[in-house]
Amino acid sequence: MRRLAILGSCFLILACASVTENQKPVTPFGDKVEKELAILSSINPALADELRRLPELRRGLDEKGTQALHRIVTYYTQSQNPEEVKQIFDRILSIGKKERRKFSAPLQALFWLAEENEIPLNKNPLTLPSKERYRTFNKHLGEDEEVIQFVYNVWRKSYHTDKWKDPNEIMDRLNSPHLFDLFFRDNIAYDHQKSKAARSDRRYHENWGSYLQSAKVTIQRRKGTCQDAANLADEILSKVGYDVKPLQVKFKLSTPTGSNRHWVGVLKEGGLFYKIADDYKQFDGIVGPFKSVMVVAEEVARIYNNWVEDYSLSQVPIR
Predict the structure, then answer these.
(1) pTM
(2) Which among 40, 94, 218, 246 could disulfide-bond with 224, CB atoms 3.0 to 4.6 Å apart, if both were Cys?
């Protein structure tokens, strides 16, 4: 009987835990948040749902966050040109693959902006932040340039804050090629010490796996080798529906650093290929399109004033 009682208590505890996990976050502002979302949902239920998916709302909003939500809802519901406002939000939500991403990073950026400032009625919020130009936008990929520019200017002012502390949330946030590139360019440095250690390892071909970092580790360390950078793009963007693979290019001649190979990410989109996550030419951004992987490999070699000896869509080093 005592054993049955203990088992019954365990099941009760597990059941309570399960219920707790599925409950909405309880905050002093929960009722206000639900009221704002209900107002928006009556006009645009899809947008209300996208807001609910933001990490801030999933965690539960404080007073500042509740005010930000109120500003967004007010902007949407009180505009004199509702169709234009709907188009603006449709553009914001167009970045990334909706069916694969956990949340809309541009919508989160707008939420961050609303935490600090009012959004003037009948004005395009995408034009509000001060403009420092993101100069490597690749029009061939079809992403909305003004939205990416908006995110760039919001993000670059926030990298020093706690918004960029959680590596899991950061990886979920980088859910389109340009969103990935924005973060990669400004935050991932080349790890010269690790690269030197790998090159001096005579058994590198057997030990290569021990040198390769996961995306999470690269985000945490904010640095890595070219192999880590290619893996970062592969791991993050493949998860959200993009066709990305690490490309290894082996050169005919050694480079001035003593290396005879380089890794980059290759993104395939619309039947064409793009070079991404190239830590040697980091400020070139996403380069392409190219007609084949071989042409991407030749471009990588050309950057190093070299020629292709071999190439492979693999992390395993070519002998």
Answers:
(1) 0.89
(2) 218
pLDDT band at residue 199 under the 50/70/90 scheme: confident
Neighbours of 142 (CB within 10 A): 9
Check pLDDT > 50 for residue 2: no
Give per-residue pLDDT as tens, 261-270. 999 999 999 9
Contact indicator for 32, 73 with CB cutoff of 8 Å: no
Half-sphere exposure at residue 154, Cβ-oriented, CA atoms within 13 angstroms:
26
Per-residue pLDDT reduced to its tens digit, 223-235: 999 999 999 999 9
User: Which 3-state string (H, E, C) describes the chain?
Assistant: CHHHHHHHHHHHHHHHHHHHHHCCCCCCCHHHHHHHHHHHHCCCHHHHHHHHCCHHHHHCCCHHHHHHHHHHHHHHHCCCCHHHHHHHHHHHCCCCCCCCCCCCHHHHHHHHHHHHCCCCCCCCHHHCCCCCCCCCCCHHHCCCHHHHHHHHHHHCCCCCCHHHCCHHHHHHHCCCHHHHHHHHHHHCEECHHHHHHHHCCCCHHHHHHHHCCCHHHHHHHCEECHHHHHHHHHHHHHHCCCEEEEEEEEECCCCCCCCCEEEEEEEEECCEEEEECCCCCHHHCCEEEECCHHHHHHHHHHHCCCCEEEEECCCCCCC
Instruction: Report the DSSP beta bridge partners of residue 310.
Output: 250
